[in-house]
Specification:
With 761 residues, the chain is α+β, with helices and mostly antiparallel strands. The chain contains 22 helices and 24 strands. The chain folds into three domains: 187 residues, Biosynthetic peptidoglycan transglycosylase-like (Penicillin binding protein transpeptidase fold), CATH 1.10.3810.10; 97 residues, OB fold (Dihydrolipoamide Acetyltransferase, E2P) (Beta Barrel), CATH 2.40.50.140; 336 residues, 3-Layer(aba) Sandwich (Beta-lactamase), CATH 3.40.710.10.
């Protein structure tokens, strides 16, 4: 009797399947003619994001809604195919698009409630759904899905369908396709994945959010174990392989480690350039843009900038918590996470909310469940904020939002994000290829690119261009100029009276031009500009790429009172570094489409080949020789810790210590560092280019020039005198090639007399 009753459910299932088959047959006759054409699968053109690479071919940026890397089925490891079929469609190579055995098995399991509810979508049906249908759960949609599966199977081979699936399926974290998921979750190509990693990825199509190893590692592990078990059941792996893969730790890559280095500012420059050229298509057509950036240089620039700003910030003391939140007595982790929502981490500087505080210990919470404790030396920077005398905006109390940083032994300390900003930019002076661009402390905090967008006064770092102009008027390194006070009346300036001063407040009387540059004497620079003429100097500096309108023809130009961008400064110093040639800084080497066809290749002008010669090579030699002394004995002498004799450069500090600069170079690399506030305010007394910007430059150059041989500075022909006091053999205004000319453009007013080299001005 009981056996008869057991047959009824099975009979109902069979009848149900038969009825569905009849319904499907009727629907097929009606719906088949209305099915969409298969152009988008037979001529597959996926949305592939814009990808940005370093000069070495390493990924440094990506833009697009869908992260996808397209691979052919021949590039897919067999173990990944086995895992996908084990998890999604064991009979894939036996059915014709719809697995009737799978449908029956799922129907019985769902009817009898034995085990989890099962679906019966084959890989081909999933392809049909992903390309043509919505995910609504209706009978009509399911019928369409099955009919489309038949149509796809009649038009494509099994290998082609599987290739579509592997490239198109969504796998979480904006990753579409297994190649993209391998890179995003593990930082590896498909062929580099282990069996454990393959099983994890193969489990994602079932539920990219539910089984996401970043958001739900426990459920992701369960799904991985299921895939491994299924692979063992269909005999594509052994029991031993299953056990070993199950034991392997799930080392999911943090998304920040996806790129070879932090290059957000340069990546954004590329994005803007590509959008300007291709509009919205730039984000979907699979463009590959190869930049001039070197990963080692960019990494060194980032580290130098951050360490330099943090050192400056610590010198000026703790400013207090970023904000305060009112915490309930028994605040849950969910509440604490919510409090930290608007306070993004900045690389290794994390936001935290204080939960307990005393003078000896602070307990705080970091997002995603990490409770930390700060004691001893970790409290030192903010010690004043833990006293009873601390003001309300300085004091650290429960609910305070603070910043913390851990050392290599995981000991936590209070720190803060610097309020000041900075940039470091470097390029190859031989052709202008940009090697590193750190446009600010943190792109997530401010997208303003200080390397290209910031117009600031360069201060004394602009003096070399005035000195260069004076060489064309007969001056030389040994010219003696008067370093004594000057006063200009309101009538002379056309405005207010002006009494310029030297930085240190001292005056040395007669001094050589070389020593004046080495010691950055303001009064000497002003007298030089007086002698050569402001109009002449204004015209002359355009040879280096500066805009005349940004440098009005007044004597203040001698002190760098005009406006420049760091990019212009790099271009300007490159002229000295390469022997007198104007090169244009550039950052894109070439652009390729998704198939590797080259769409664009940069053809840079190169010094001594096809670049315009804008100053005499003797001029470039003398200026480099003098600026080497700035590094050896002058305001940049701390750079001698690098142990190199081929470095030249100039510090710069503007009025009221608003901007700090250092521009320096050797024959193969120019780098400029700048520090200042976005809303200009003083950096503080004695915070000069030499104390604030130069350390950043030194840190960067020390890292990238390690092991690089020095290039000797050979004197060009046409000079007379010793190496340190060499001057032009000819006198009078020079053309751009160095030959004396009469009435050469930009050569007025008349040159200084021959005695200028030994005359007091």
């Amino acid at each position: 009797m009981s056996a008869r009753w057991l047959l009824y459910p099975l009979l109902l299932v069979v009848v149900g399947i038969f009825a569905k088959a009849l319904l499907l047959g009727f629907a097929a006759a009606v719906i088949w003619p209305t099915l969409p054409a298969l152009d988008i699968v037979t001529d597959y053109r996926p949305k592939v994001p814009l990808r940005i690479y370093s000069a070495e071919g390493k990924l440094i940026g990506e833009f697009g809604e869908e992260r996808r890397s397209v691979v052919s089925i021949k590039q897919v490891p067999k173990s990944l195919v086995d895992a996908i079929l084990a998890a999604e469609d064991e009979r894939y190579f036996q059915h014709k698009g719809v697995d009737y055995m799978g449908v029956a098995r799922a129907a019985i399991a769902n009817f009898t409630h034995i085990g989890p509810r099962q679906g019966a979508s084959t890989i081909t049906m999933q392809v049909a759904r992903n390309f043509f249908l919505t995910r609504e759960k209706t009978i009509t949609r399911k019928v369409n899905e099955m009919l489309l599966a038949f149509k796809i199977e009649s038009s494509l081979t099994k290998e082609q369908i599987l290739e579509l699936y592997i490239n198109q399926i969504y796998l979480g974290q904006r990753a579409y396709g297994f190649a993209s998921a391998a890179r995003i979750y593990y930082g590896k190509p498909l062929e580099g994945l282990s069996l454990a990693e393959i099983a994890m990825l193969a489990g994602l199509p079932k539920g990219p959010s539910i089984f996401n190893p970043v958001a739900n590692p426990a459920r992701a592990k369960q799904r991985q174990q299921y895939v491994l078990r299924r692979m063992r059941e269909i005999n594509v792996i052994s029991t031993e392989e299953q056990a070993n893969a199950d034991k392997q730790p799930l080392a999911i890559k943090n998304e920040l480690n996806e790129f070879a280095t932090k290059a957000d500012y340069i990546a954004e420059m590329v994005r803007q350039a590509m959008y300007e050229r291709y509009k919205e298509n730039a984000y979907a057509m699979g463009l590959k843009v190869y930049t001039t950036i070197f990963v080692t240089h960019q990494t060194a620039a980032n580290a130098a900038l951050r360490s330099g700003l943090l050192a400056y910030d610590r010198r000026h003391g703790y400013r207090g918590p970023e904000a305060y939140a009112e915490l309930p007595a028994n605040a849950t982790e969910e509440t604490l996470d919510f409090v930290l929502t608007d306070y993004l981490d900045s690389e290794d500087i994390y936001s935290a909310v204080v939960t307990e505080v005393s003078r000896q210990r602070i307990k705080a919470y970091r997002r995603n469940g990490e409770h930390i404790e700060i004691t001893d030396a970790g409290l030192k920077f903010a010690a004043e904020a833990l006293t009873d005398k601390a003001g309300p905006n300085l004091r650290i109390r429960r609910g305070a939002i603070i910043r913390v940083q851990a050392d290599d032994k995981k000991r936590w300390a209070i720190t803060q994000l610097p309020a000041v900003e900075s940039m470091l930019l470097s390029a190859d002076p031989r052709d202008g290829a940009i090697r590193a661009l750190a446009g600010g402390f943190d792109f997530a905090r401010s997208q303003f690119n200080h390397a290209t967008q910031a117009l600031r006064q360069p201060g004394s770092s602009f003096k070399p261009f005035i000195y260069s102009a004076s060489l064309e008027k007969g001056f030389g390194p040994g010219s003696v100029i008067d370093d004594s006070p000057l006063t200009f009346s309101a009538a002379q300036t056309g405005g207010e009276a002006w009494e310029p001063k030297n930085y240190d407040g001292t005056y040395d009387g007669p001094i050589s031009m070389r020593q004046a540059l080495v010691r950055s004497k303001n009064l000497v620079s002003i007298r030089i500009l007086q002698a050569i003429g402001t109009k002449y100097a204004q015209d002359y500096i355009t040879r280096f790429g500066f805009e005349a309108k940004m440098h009005p023809p007044y004597l203040t130009m001698a002190l760098g009172a005009g406006n420049v961008t760091p990019m212009q400064m790099v271009g300007g110093y490159s002229v000295f570094a390469n022997g007198g040639f104007r090169v244009k800084p550039y950052f894109i080497q070439r652009i390729e489409d998704s198939k590797g066809t080259v769409l664009y290749t940069e053809k840079p002008v190169r010094a001594k080949e096809n670049a315009e010669k804008v100053i005499d090579e003797r001029n470039a030699y003398i200026m480099t020789n003098m600026m080497r002394d700035v590094v050896r004995f002058g305001t940049a002498a701390s750079a001698m810790k690098l142990g190199r004799g081929d470095l030249a450069g100039k510090t710069g500090t503007t009025n009221d210590f608003l901007d700090a600069w250092f521009g320096g170079y050797n024959a193969e690399l120019v780098a400029v560092a700048w520090v200042g506030y976005d809303q200009p305010k003083t950096l503080g007394r004695n915070e000069t280019g030499g104390s604030v910007a130069l350390p950043i430059w030194i840190s960067y150059m020390g890292a990238v020039l390690k092991g690089v041989a020095e290039v000797p500075l050979d004197a060009p022909p046409g000079l007379v005198g010793s190496g340190t006091d060499a001057v032009y053999q000819e006198n009078g205004p020079r053309g751009e090639g160095g030959t004396p000319t009469e009435g050469a453009p930009g050569s007025t007013p008349a040159p200084a007399p021959d005695s200028a080299r030994n005359q007091l001005f």
